[in-house]
Amino acid sequence: MSTYEDRLKALREELARRRLDGFVVPLTDEHMSEYVGAYAQRLAWLTGFQGSAGSAVVLPAEAAIFVDGRYTLQVRDQVDGKHWSYQSVPQTSTSEWLEKNAPDGGRIGYDPWLHTKGWVEAAKRALATKGAELVAVDTNPIDAVWPDKPAPSDARLVVQPDDLTGQSSAAKRAEIADWLDAKRADSAVLSALDSIAWTFNVRGTDVERTPVALAYALVHADATADLYVASDKIDDAVRQHLGNGVRVHDRAAFEPALRALAGKTVAVDPERAVAAIFESLSKGGATLIEARDPAVLPKAIKNAVEVAGHKSAQARDGAALSRFLHWLSVEAPKGGLDELTAQAKLRAFRDETGLLRDLSFDTISGAGPNGAVVHYRASEETNRPLERGSLYLVDSGGQYQDGTTDVTRTVAIGEPTAEMRDRYTRVLKGHIAIARAIFPKGTRGGQLDILARQFLWAAGLDYAHGTGHGVGSYLSVHEGPQRIATFGGGDEPLQAGMILSNEPGYYKTGEYGIRIENLILTVPIAIDGAEKDMYGFETLTLAPYERALIDVSMLTADEIAWINAYHARVSAEIGSQLDGEAKAWIEAATAELN
Fold it and tell me: Which residues form the Peptidase M24 C-terminal domain (predicted)?
């Protein structure tokens, strides 16, 4: 299995042994997670693709890999086009591709623990047009040919204390019980790892970059719960924290427990629960209610304690980033820096806080043309120097026990071109438009997306990703249901307490990338004479913008005033944490524009 060609060949041989004419390979785990443990990285093992979203289909004579616009360039660098065809999402999907390419009367395999019920239904309809069949496998065929597949993490759970969550687990379960009562349901299935972590006020280290533990849960209408997790992952401190209202079982007992819910009415989330969960409940005789996981919305609406924690984490993280930006301003002009050196130095500044638990995602450290790869990850093979006359894009974040951060800054190395300044300023104007937005209660994130794109559109430009995603509280850096996007979501009404990113960008393939990202908190806005409840955003992230890339002549007086007010906050809140040359640098970096 030394090459990806060997791995593809071995999988095809395994499929032939199982009398399958194809197999679908998603990049997820049995919890429908965005980021997955090493044991679930089947797509990466098979294809070499290192992105965080994608899927593949393998047929006897052809194979295809499916990615969205964030990975258009990356997939071509990492996956051999001789063996795989590149498919763009949402222009096509695995189901649509199978409808055109599956053999007539064929048997296409899938792992029911890695797909949603909705996907299964769509794939079955698509295959029916070819007289083909979608076949659930008992065991994943990739696992059968992956000789050194890692085992799931055995790390123990840890307690997330109430003074950081702002609400006890018992209170959260009581709210879910009220929700169940309103639905006239007996139990709710929680299979999303961040929902379980939030509901039970526990965290873990089973998934890199996301502090969650591999587990399932059933929460009941009497506010008790059953938690299914490997027994050696629970110690006495966690058991005491969970209390008598939570019964702990081995993770392997989850599926039998589903089958034992005969006669019960069970709420299950069709977006977050895999098809196998629906199948087990149905076979067991439960009555199913399809409804969104009851932890999703309250988890997204941060309480006062969580907001305070976020602000502390943002200030701490902003100081670390500012130290890095100062260091970069000194070292980059000398030459000799590259992407890997820079990202390691940024990690070191965060480590120096003494409170960093992990990064919140793999740092995107993109120099020159690598900055145009939206979700780029530097490696020894792709590592580029930070050259004079180029742009450097760094998108990074930290996991702290009191909050999760995510911030992007684009830096000019040497003198930027007029085009670079124009594009950066257009992105900045869109970024400011989101930050200054005022909108009525009930507004969806998708309705705001055009505010970020309007200045790029005016020049015939755009970017192929959403403008904003939700962010958790020491949980997932990409948290739903709120988004600012016109595709792939963005239809959730924004509510006070929701945290989102604000990250428009511009990418010129083969030359440079620009992105500016802050985290923003949705807050009520008081307006004299207002006839509706109005909301706006409070910017949480604190770090200076790149003055060398701002074309002040393109800004309005209001935009200049907003930047100056923001920079004054940065100087006051971050400058107080710095000293010496770094303090002098941030004072210059945040001086007023005029």
Answer: 534-592
How many structural domains comprise the chain? Answer: 3
534 shares a domain with 478: yes
Domain with 249 in it: 158-295
Give, in order, the Cα–Cα distances in Å from 222 to each of 177, 180, 187, 226, 436: 6, 9, 9, 12, 44
CA dihedral sign, ordered 139, 226, 33, 116: positive
Q: Are residues 474 and 337 in the same domain?
A: yes
> In tens digits, what is the pLDDT along the chain, a chain of 594 residues?
689 999 999 999 999 999 999 999 999 999 999 889 999 999 999 999 998 899 999 999 999 999 988 888 889 999 999 999 999 998 999 999 999 999 999 999 999 999 999 999 999 999 999 999 999 999 999 999 999 999 999 999 999 999 999 999 999 999 999 999 999 999 999 999 999 999 999 999 999 899 999 999 999 999 999 999 999 999 999 999 999 999 999 999 999 999 999 999 999 999 999 999 999 999 999 999 999 999 999 999 999 999 999 999 999 999 999 999 999 999 999 999 999 999 999 999 999 999 999 999 999 999 999 999 998 999 999 999 999 999 999 999 999 999 999 999 999 999 999 999 999 999 999 999 999 999 999 999 999 999 999 999 999 999 999 999 999 999 999 999 999 998 767 799 999 999 999 999 999 999 999 999 999 999 999 999 999 999 999 999 999 999 999 999 999 999 999 999 999 999 999 999 999 999 999 999 999 998
Residue 20 burial (10 A CB sphere; 0-12, 13-18, 19+): buried
Q: Which of 348, 477, 466 is nearest to 33 (CA)?
A: 477
Question: Do residues 246 and 224 touch, judged by C-beta distance below 8 A?
Answer: yes
Q: Rounded to whole angstroms, how far apart are CA atoms 472 and 384?
A: 32
Instruction: Check residue 155 and report its DSSP letter.
Output: P
pTM (two decimals): 0.94
Domain boundary among 145, 171, 194: 145
Q: Are 186 and 221 contacting, i.e. CB atoms less than 8 angstroms apart? A: yes
